[in-house]
Amino acid sequence: MLSRQTMKLFILLIGMVLIFEGLPYVAAPESMQAWLKKLSEMRPDQLRIMGIVAMAIGLLLCWIIQGDSLF
Fold this sequence. Notes:
This protein is mainly alpha-helical. It has helices at about 5-25, 30-40, 45-65.
């Protein structure tokens, strides 16, 4: 069973992801439309590689922070 503190942290993390995901749409909606159009024209294998790279970078960041004594 997850502790209350763990669930609170997980929900906080989801909220932060949504904030960061929404920022470009608020700050530059026209640029986001152009970027999404380019993204929709890419081949699926290119998108898959971009996803793998993004996941690897995220995993690396989490691994570095977990190993750090600050947290």
